[in-house]
Amino acid sequence: MLVIFEGTSQVETTVRAVLADILGLSADRVATFTADTPLFGALPELDSMAVASVLTELEDRLGILIEDDEIDGEMLETFGALVQFAAGKALV
Amino acid sequence: MTSLRFDTYDWPGGREAMLRFGPDTGPIVIAALPLFEEANRTRQFTCTILRALADHGIGSLLSDFPGTGESVVTTLDTKLSEQRRAYRALTQQLGVHSYALSIRSGALLDTDADLAGRWHLAPHTGSDLVRDLERTRAAASKSAREGEYAGNRLSPEMLAELQDAVPFEGGRYRVVRLNTDPRTADATYAGAPLWRRSEPSNDIAFAQQLAADISHWIASCEG
């Protein structure tokens, strides 16, 4: 599996699994996601309600807390951006 | 096996509907869906668990509570304390050994009832539920009315009661979680968190595993 950032492979695996589970995407499809794969605005399944579910599920699985004022369009722009955001929370 | 039937029960604030599955004899499993949006996402899955329980010879019911399902009480007019009161009245009316099968925030409803045991799937605390509601509300901020959370209008009293609510873990208690959930559990299973999925879905294999787990657990409680 592609590792986007050093030391983040576990986080990346979790982000992939959460996107598959919450958005109802196949494992094959999320396996093709790269750092540049656009998310919000590009995946019709990822509407604003689904964003809330994805972030809350990431919190549960990674044991992190995401403050509402941290949620912006940038972190959801691409798969790489979401992994980087989650890794920044999980690996500190 | 007895087929699906429609039934009702009375509580001090009115009458609510329930679906009954499986035999009328023996212990009864009372299923409580999560509150609000997650109820839609888990209803079909829960019915699959209850049908599988009937195959194990265990009767069950899927009940409405004030402000849920077909209840004539609006979400704005209900409170957690009233839903707990209705749950207690339901167990009193049944008058048999009953076991809770509570999913997510459904685990906040069985706290005051006289039950032989409680089986919780991925139970949610009230404060976590309120946090989810607030986040969803923020995501839908452009269209939400005052006091509206993902389409549900809730009173300040309801939100205050939810904020302090936690599942009751005393007596015969079993908590089951997904294997992706790091929190403590008596058993974990592989499966998707259907309660968070954008579109309602089902997982028959997972439901059958859970029904077998519940069936074994009730046998051990009764034995």
Automatic annotation (TrEMBL), chain A:
InterPro entries per record: ACP-like_sf (IPR036736), PP-bd_ACP (IPR009081)
Domain of life the protein comes from: Bacteria
Location of the Carrier domain: 9-90
PROSITE patterns, alphabetized: CARRIER
Record-linked Pfam families: PP-binding
Name of the molecule in the record: Acyl carrier protein
